[in-house]
Amino acid sequence: xxxxxxxxxxxxLAVAVLAAGCDMGVVMGSRSVGVRSxxxxxxxxxxxxxxxxxxxRVWKAVEAVYREMKAQRLEQEKKIGKGKMVGFVLDEKxxxxxxxxxxxxxxxxxxxxxxxxxIAAHLIHEKIAQELSKDR
Length: 136
Known about the structure:
Layout: H1 3-19, E1 24-28, E2 31-36, E3 40-43, E4 46-51, H2 55-68, E5 72-79, E6 82-89, E7 92-102, E8 105-112, H3 118-133
Helix pairs in contact: 2-3
């Protein structure tokens, strides 16, 4: 099999896997990225998702989640169009980065612990989504 044929077979397999909605991950050097059913992207331990809401509303929802979880030693850093919150929940470090992407689109990246706990990060994203669904 020639190089061109091998390339097309590999490309076709990649498209088939992506179209099927399977989980997928790629490691390049020291960085890793994964996609899970089109909902979340994992990057360097962070679970990233985009919410169809404005930055300020998402920021308030994340603050409410930190309060609900009784976070200790909460630090907030808010700039124009992006911000970061760091706190400790049950002695586990919780980092949330929030970034404006477009009008009514805000990206939220959640890191639980040092290397990333995907189950806990998914729970945090669910809590953010619940907060955003209130008062609608």
